[in-house]
Each structure stands twice: as structure tokens, then as C-alpha cells.
Amino acid sequence: MESSLTTYTMEIEYYRPNSNSAEDNDASIYWLRVLSASLGIWPQKLVGDKKQWWKRLYYFMIIMHWYNTYLQVEFFFHNLGALKTMTEGLCSFCSISLTGIKIMRLNSFSNEINLLLERMRTHHFMQEIKLLKKGKNKPIFERIDQIMKDKWKEVKINLLLYTVSVGIVASSYSIFPAVINLINLFQGSSNPRRFVYKTYYRGMENLKFYSPLHEILFSSESLSGYTTFAGVIAFDGLYVLLTMHVITIFKSLKLVIKESTRSIFTDEEKQFYLHECIDHYTRAIMFMDDINKIFSPIFILQLFTSTSIICVIAFHASANALEKFLFQKVISIYLHSAEKSSQTVFSFPRIWCNKSTYALLRIAAPSQL
């Protein structure tokens, strides 16, 4: 009872973020917001009141995406005897199908994502941190501000590089074939016009290379290619953003733990810090549970999809020994993809396990408290 009364008489100070912190947040995730908004999957509460148009945009984009996925399935069954063509079509089908699932997943969890982003943007967890005015809190607050600044900088660089790299790959499917078609058109070449994907148009195979049908079908496939590009950025980029925020929470927890070990505090004050560390740790775990609920099933699916693609390419290469160089080039790309997928699936639990174990050991050390 005495220690409880002592706790209530303690002078407490709260962390308050810089006034421009929210603007830094918005600037760092610019490409994530733009690409997600273009698909209609950015949380509606963050884009305004035009919810009807927002839903229409999402349904239009996802319908076009799955329509072109269906055309690739038609192509797959129409070319069951051509191993090379089947391999190319199957790899493309797996990629855009997984992206379609990602887009639908983000849309179905729109309210939950909005809550996570709002907590991150307002620094909800950081403002819950309580420090005693008795200690030197200004350096701690400055250190938290620096951690925030470094986080936004790293998020901005990662999103930019990821957007550029995925954009280059996506352009090889759509922009490059469009340029080649224009060059052949101006040169009067008789080469058949190219399409974005390996698709089969039932009843229109003999007509799809003629204008204006070719331009319409090419634009439709390009739209599907764009949804694949934007969907990958929207899903993976959002995961990177939220993960970096969790790391920031644990870094701030480390600062609180370090502050609690100072000799100027009494046993009751150290007990107060112990409670604060446990509360902060609990809030971080709950935040991570919300993230895992949204992302974990898709990352497991992505891991198995990448592994399946590797197996298909390996089977194709084993049946075509003359394409050894092509196999080595393609397999290295997909091996890298599978490696990144596995790192994504398992890195997040490893991050919080290491941080939380370290925190608990420090908190529970009787010699420290």
C-alpha cells in the first residue's frame, strides 16, 4: 500500500513527437500510398469520402486482373504439349495469381490496416511511454526522435529501391513489347505483334493481331501487369513499413530499460519503470499479433509458390540441356525470390524474439533493479 501511494506522487513526463513527424511519415511512404490508392486498396478513411468510387475502382482493377489470369489458364490448357511455353505461362500465372490474392487480402483487412497506420502515424505507442521527471529525459526524447528519423529515412530508401526494381521487371512485360510493336509498325515489318502475357483468346486467336482489337487486348493485359506491379509494392511495402515501426518500438523500450538502471532511482521508482517496460512490451506484442494476422498466411503461400516455380523451371531445364545458360539465369532469379520470401516469413518472428528476450532478461535481472 505504501509503495502504491508513493507511485501516485511521482512526477511523470510523457514523450511527445516533433510537429513535423506526421509529414515525414507521409513523405516517406509516398509511392506506397500512390500505388495502393491506384488499386483502390488504400484504407478508405485515409483517402476521403468518395467511398462508392473507391469501391468501383477496386472491383474494376481486380476483375481485370482475374480476367487476364483466366486467359493464362486457357493458354496453359491449350498448350499442354509445349513444355517451354507451358513453363513460361505457369510461372507468370503463379506470379499474378499470388498478387491478386494479396490485393484482395489488403482490401478485406482495410479497417484493421487503417487502425495500424493511424497508430503508427500518431506515434500512439511512443506517447504512452511514461518517464519520471527525476531522470534526464530530454536526451531520451531526442534519441527517440533520432530513431524515428532514421526509420523514416530507411523506409523511404527501401520503398524507392523496391519500386524501381519491381518496375523494371514489370516494364519488360508491358513497356518493352509496346515499344517493339511501335518500331515494327513504323518499319512496316511483318513480324507478329507481341502481347504482355501468354494468353489464349478463345474464338479470337486469328483476329487478335489486327487493329484495333490488338490495341484493346494489349491495354487490358497491360492493366493486369500494372495491378501485379502495384499489388506487390502495396503488400510488401506495407509489411516493411509496419515491421520497421515495431523495431522502433523495441528500440525505445531499450532506452527505457537503460534509464531504469540508474542509481538515482529508489526501489519504488525502479518498480514503476519495471511496470512501464512490461506494459510497453505487451503493447508491442499485441501490435505484432495484428500484423501477423494480416500478412503471415500470404507469406507462407508466397514461400510455397516460389518453391514450386523453381521446381517447374528445374524440370524444364533438365529436359532442355541446350538451354543451360537460360536455366542458370532464370533459376538464380527465382532462387533469390525464394530466399527473400523465406527471409520475410521468418525474419519478423526472429526480430521480436531477439528483442523481447533481451528486454525481459534486462528487466528481470535482480542486480539491475
From TrEMBL:
Any one GO cellular component localisation term in the record: plasma membrane
Keyword field: Cell membrane, Membrane, Olfaction, Receptor, Sensory transduction, Transducer, Transmembrane, Transmembrane helix
Keyword Ribonucleoprotein in record: no
Chain segments annotated as transmembrane: 159-183, 229-250, 294-317
Subcellular locations according to the entry: Cell membrane
Chief site of localization: membrane
Membrane topology: Multi-pass membrane protein
Biological process terms in GO annotation: signal transduction
Pfam families named among the record's database cross-references: 7tm_6
Entry GO MF terms: odorant binding; olfactory receptor activity
Domain of life: Eukaryota
Presence of the UniProt keyword Membrane in the record: yes
Family according to the record: Belongs to the insect chemoreceptor superfamily. Heteromeric odorant receptor channel (TC 1.A.69) family.
Protein's name in the database: Odorant receptor
Gene name for this UniProt entry: 5573676
